[in-house]
Amino acid sequence: MAAPTSSSSVPPPRPSPLAFAVVREPADRAPHEAARHFLARLREPTTLLLALSGGSDSTALLIAFHEAMSAGSPHRLVACTVDHGLRQGSGAEAAQVAALCATLAIPHETARWQHAGVRSAIQAQARLARYRLLADCAGRHGAALILTGHTADDQAETIAMRRARTDAAEDGAATGLSGMADMTLFERRIWIARPFLRLSRQRLRDLLLQRGMSWIEDPSNDNPAFERVRLRRGGAAASVDLQQAEAAERRRRESSARIAALLAERLRFHGQGLGELSLLPNDLEDPDMPRLLAILAGIMGGRAHGPGRQSIDRLMTSLRASHARFAAGRCLFDRRGSRLFLYRELRGLPAEMQLPPGSVTDWDGRFRILNHTRAPLSIRTSCEAQANRDEISRSIPTSIARAAQSSLPLCLHDPLIAEMAPPISLSRRLAPFDTFLPCFDSTMAACFDSLIGREPFPPAPVRDDLS
Both ends of the chain: CA-CA distance in Å? Predict the structure, then answer.
């Protein structure tokens, strides 16, 4: 089997202490066994898109799945390399990876990120662009899943980074310490699977050495400008116990299920911009309540991440009064006895904008607006508009109804334009779930979808069996 050859292809370094310290559970099986185990969990014949950078992890993923699918498998494997264009030589590396796929008769695409206008948060933007390009490629090939080569070493580093920002004693659901999910839904359109998340990187490199193969080393893996590299060098990830992380994941799943049950009974939405949660006397003592309030703040405020724990603690203290009004994460919490109303605060709403014909925008993080017309669409807030009582129950206090309605988008278009399609489409977003939805929060996200009347998100094509 052909091996990539270039000046950047190197044999593995000596095993790091992390490789020994992190993986202690029997789940660290051989890569080809993990690949067969994953394929056995697929519900039906499936096309799998493998994210292939040429590094040791993704190359071992390619080899293990290629071998597992070579003997009459009903599944199909394709590969995609994302060239971010952020360093010299990335194009040549993508070509090298494409050549490897050609020797294995695996269809391959190279997707290039166009980032000329990106000026800040380059790493976060690159990550989002990578998954969007992979999802687009998956759509072209009819793939139902994206496979990535994340390992137990990556998981330990992720948990170490989150642990540095999380007080586990205060986090009843251990949401930060649960690490990466083995399945994540991206933009409500395709699932991302991490079949090697319980395998050490050294096991993957051992597979490549056994096959006489090398891999590409990314120089950014040794750049101390990145938090992961600093953690790796400082040994913080080596202290992570992945069995405890799996226990934290179970607690997060349980927390999500309990929150979903509570939501189904006591949360309702009035129109597009107002939520109402019925409070019982002991609700504020519920260990899941801080997490629920943070998620609700994210949804009503249009942010993927809710307020921090200190802000939520202050909110909880405020809500112990029978009448209280508190802002957290761009969301106003307005308690009136046993009724807790939630709506977007008016501060910081988007400025008026023009949406070009045929384009889409995620307005304020709360709404997706598509302009079907042949002319620009003007979008501004309806702060000056009268509250529309037809959309909100008459039982809602007038001041709350007016404030909630005032935070909604007002879309203005030329009424003389004749269109076959409706002039605009406007749909509600759930910012904490609509870009990345980890599988252990899917029960809760499905409940929110039902409450706002959205179509359910696509089910994972893999059985939920982690044994």
Answer: 32
Domain 9-247 has CATH 3.40.50.620: yes
* DSSP SS3 for 160: helix
Handedness of CA 242, 245, 249, 251 (dihedral sign): positive
- The 10s digit of each residue's pLDDT in 381-431 is 987 545 454 566 678 999 999 999 999 998 876 554 444 446 778 899 999
| Contact (CB, 8 A) for 409 and 377 | no
What pTM was computed for the model?
0.87
Q: How many CB atoms lie within 10 A of CB 224?
A: 10
Taking only the tens place, the pLDDT of each residue in 155-197 is: 988 888 887 766 544 454 456 678 899 999 999 999 999 999 9
Domain boundaries, the chain: 9-247, 271-433
Pairing between strand 331-336 and 339-344? antiparallel
Kind of pairing between the strands at 436-438 and 183-186: antiparallel
Helix (H) or strand (E) holding 47: strand 47-51
Name residue 424's beta-bridge partners: 371
